[in-house]
Structure formats: structure tokens, C-alpha cells
């Protein structure tokens, strides 16, 4: 079975609220796809529809080419953690997993494998009710891995975790993708996905804003800008603006230059006798790239809203 999730023209309304609006994207094998959007953007609704927990008003969601509900061994096709709090508090961690394995026709020995994989060995016989958030997330992930599925989906798995927990989850997701699995992981914070995702599906108000590789997005957001350090900031700005660049003061002795390459900047400043102490290509952070993307989406909506009859 292929390791993919394919979402095509998916739509969902709750009364007057359009939660998901003609959404299409593909989650491919061998990479971590970040599913990003602000609170209420429609990420959880989309994931619930992928798992057949919510019925779409239109469109399709396929897991390995088939609707989730038609899968004969669903735990072995798609592993998901949609809500880490969904645990029976009185049940011990290992018993919880044994119960799930039994219900899904998975051999009991797999339970100990996933307990080890998720670092829960020391806590396996403790009751889930006393677990910290980080331990609950680990138990939720252990449950998702029970069927050794080629497709994995996690809703906000690092939400509320400490840096150590975030690093652990990031490493685990990467290793699962390196095994060829398709991994979809949602977050409302782009910073949580920095260094963790290879590909991004960005949504806002239920609509697709971007479906792009992380590298491509950063290249586009970096936009050929150059950072310049000089004690003679005003003179440098005048020379560069005169040559057609867009220049922005950036702190007391720094300037961000757009519209001119670094070689040209060096030639111009040297020619004008303006000394500088450093010059480097600006590299956007994922957070900056995201702000740019969502700002465009907000502006688009504002304009569309004004033009609406
Ligand atoms: N069962 C429901 N009944 C009514 N409205 C709902 C329901 N589930 C979701 N919504 C609404 O649909 C929209 C999308 O919600 P959803 O939970 O899918 O967003 P999200 O991107 O997962 O947000 P968050 O990051 O806060 O989890 C929101 O406006 C939400 O209030």
C-alpha cells in the first residue's frame, strides 16, 4: 500500500462556519509534512475527515488510495494521535495499549516494542491519569505506532511540551519519515516545525494558502535581501538608494538592502568611499516566511471582503 494521504476538494461547514473550504493537498512518503495555520484554521477538522470521524460536505480524503472507513486493518494503514488527552485515567499505560492492540488485531508483543520506541518503559505500569502532558503525548504516539503503519498523522503533538519533549518528537518524526512513511503533523506555530518539517501545507480559514517545500519557502522569503553593517549608515543608504535599491535602517549601524546583489553593493560603497564592516545575504526564518504568507492571505481576504456585494 502506498504511503500517502490525498485530500481533494474537501469541504466542511458547521452551521454558518465554513471550517474547511475546497482544500486539496497530498502528503507524500519519506518526509514530514507540517500542517500549519492559526487557531480555528480547520486543521483538526481536516484530520478528523481524513480518519472518517467527520463526514465531509464535499470532496474526498484518501489514505493509501482508499477512504479510511473502507480500510480492513485501519491501525496498520494509518496511525494517528488527534487528542492526547483521550485516555482512560484509571488504565495503566501498557494495558491501554494492550486493549487497543487486541481491538485492532495486533499481536501483544508489538505493545512492548512501541513502549520502548516512545521511551515509556519506566512508566508502562503506571496509571495514565497521573501522566504529565509529555507522557500522555508519548502514550498517544505509542498508540499511533501500534500497527506499524506507513502513514502517520499527529494533531499538535508538541503543543505545551518543554524543549526536551519537542526535540524528542522532532527526532522521532524525522526517523519515521526516513523509514519511508508519510508523516503529517499539525501546529498553529510555525516555530514548532522549524527543523522538523520538510514540506508545509499552510491553511487559513479552511483554505489552502501554500503547499511548498521548506527550502523553497525560505528562499522565496529571503528574497535576495542583503544585510549590511556600517558605522556610516546614512551615507550608505543614500548611495544605495540612489542606485535603485530599497534600503531599510535596521538598528544603529545596520541596513537591509533589497534590489541589489552583494557584489554590486560592495562596488558602489567602495567607489563612494563608504567603509562597512560586514555584508551577508539575509536568510529568513520559517516564522518570518510564515508571517509573510499569512499577511498576504489576510490582505487578500480584506480586499475580497470589501469588494463583496
Ligand atoms: N464540532 C464543531 N461544531 C461547530 N464548529 C466547529 C466544530 N469543530 C470545529 N468547528 C469550527 O470550525 C473551525 C475550524 O476548527 P478546527 O478545530 O478544525 O481548527 P484548527 O485549525 O484545528 O484550530 P486549533 O489550532 O485551534 O486546533 C473553527 O471555526 C471551529 O470553531
UniProtKB/TrEMBL annotation:
A molecular function GO annotation: ATP binding
Domain ABC transporter: from-to ranges: 5-230
Pfam families: ABC_tran
Keyword list, A-Z: ATP-binding, Nucleotide-binding, Transport
Entry similarity comment: Belongs to the ABC transporter superfamily.
PANTHER family: ABC TRANSPORTER, ATP-BINDING PROTEIN
Name of the protein in question: ATP-binding cassette domain-containing protein
Species this chain originates from: Actinomadura meridiana
